[in-house]
Amino acid sequence: MVDLDKFVADCREALKTRDPASVVEKLVQDVIADPAALDAAFAARITGTSLQDRMICNDEELTVAQIAAPPGLRSPVHNHCMWAVIGVYDGRSTIVSSAMPVASRSRLASNCSRSAISAA
């Protein structure tokens, strides 16, 4: 069973550590290890179909949301200028940029402090 309230509380505690991104990455890895339980936990909390309805936590320090994208969705290279931990627990995520050299395509470059960390 996945307890989303505990997950959010644990993420908040992680923000107080010296390396919050690494701590949150481990928390995400743990929670996505049981996709069925995570899906059930989100289903019990989600009230609609908009992104706002899928937000479990959204404030100045932390955002936790379930985001579903249709197969084949393409997004232009962009940067939110913040670190993020993204847990893919159903389907897959492929990051490719034809604007980057082949050797750099596996990870998007960022001119901010930290880029997305895949926990899949």
Q: What Rg do the Cα atoms give?
A: 15 Å
Shape: globular
Q: Which structural class is indicated by helix and strand composition?
A: alpha+beta
Counting DSSP H or I runs of 4 or more residues, the number of helices is 3
Across the major sheet, the strand order is: 1-2
What is the overall pLDDT average? 79
Extract low-pLDDT stretches: 100-120
Number of structurally distinct domains: 1
Largest sheet: 2 strands, antiparallel
- Distance between termini? 19 Å
Q: How many DSSP-defined strands?
A: 4
Order of helices and strands: HHHEEEE
The proportion of residues forming helix, as a percent range, comes to 25-40%
Question: How much of the residues is beta strand, in percent?
Answer: 5-15%
Description:
The strands form 2 sheets. A two-stranded antiparallel sheet has the order 1-2. A two-stranded parallel ribbon has the order 3-4. The two termini are 19 Å apart. With 120 residues, the chain is of the alpha+beta class. 8% of the residues are buried. Helix 1 runs antiparallel to helix 2. It has helices at 4-14, 20-31, 35-45; strands at residues 55-58, 63-65, 84-86, 116-118. The longest helix has 12 residues, at 20-31. Residues 100-120 have low confidence and may be disordered. The chain has one domain (4-118).
Short description:
The chain has about 120 residues and is α+β, with helices and mostly antiparallel strands. The protein is built from three helices and four strands.
List the helices and strands and how they pair.
Blueprint: H1 4-14, H2 20-31, H3 35-45, E1 55-58, E2 63-65, E3 84-86, E4 116-118
Parallel strand pairs: 3-4
Antiparallel strand pairs: 1-2
